[in-house]
Structures are given as structure tokens and as C-alpha cells.
Amino acid sequence: MGCSQGGTACCGLRREIVQDCLEFKWLASGSTPQTIYHATEIVSASGTLQATSNTVGMTHVTVAFSIGSTAVTSFNLGNKESTAFTVVGFDTITLTGHAPSQAESATGTLCMTPRYELF
């Protein structure tokens, strides 16, 4: 997230007020699951996921939202694909590549605005 004159830029949008906007790049290698986000409480979030480039052997990446070890929902992203999402009630986001070897990889970005439950 970066600052710009007259507001804050997050996920490519310029806003006057941004609360807990997360924007980062990710890398998935082979078929080893990788946690890219973990919260200490249950959150809901809206955002975008994008796969920007895959090596030839990486067919797609599965992005799973879960609470504990229970999957809430998941998305499959092929090379240069993206999706918008709103997911309610999760604490972890995990990437799993689908490739025959660890030498294969995919890169992408995650932009999201999490919201937390009130106590």
C-alpha cells in the first residue's frame, strides 16, 4: 500500500479513507501448499486474486479460504486469470499449485479489505 497526494492508493484505487487494505504479491511452487494469510480471529473480506504468470508445467493454482482445517471456499486460477471475491468467516488463505515438480511456479497478487467480527 502506498501513499499518494490527496488520499491513499490501495489495490490500484485511490481513496480518502482506507481501513486495513492488504495488497501483496505471492509465489506458488510445485504442489506444496503455502499459507499466504493468517488471522488470529475470524474475518470476512472482499478483494481480487490474480495469477500474473505461470511456468509451462503449472496448470493452475487453487486458492483456499478456510477456518481452522475446514475449507470455506476455494478458487482455481490459471495463467493470467483473475477473480473478485467476497468470503465470510475465514482465518487462513492457502495457495496450492498444480504442477509435476517444484521447479514449476506461478506468481500473482492478492488485494483485499478484511472486516472483523464485533465482540
Automatic annotation (TrEMBL):
<dbReference type="Pfam" id="PF13157">
    <property type="entry name" value="Enas"/>
</dbReference>
<feature type="domain" description="Endospore appendages core">
    <location>
        <begin position="10"/>
        <end position="117"/>
    </location>
</feature>
<protein>
    <submittedName>
        <fullName>S-Ena type endospore appendage</fullName>
    </submittedName>
</protein>
<dbReference type="InterPro" id="IPR025055">
    <property type="entry name" value="Ena_core"/>
</dbReference>
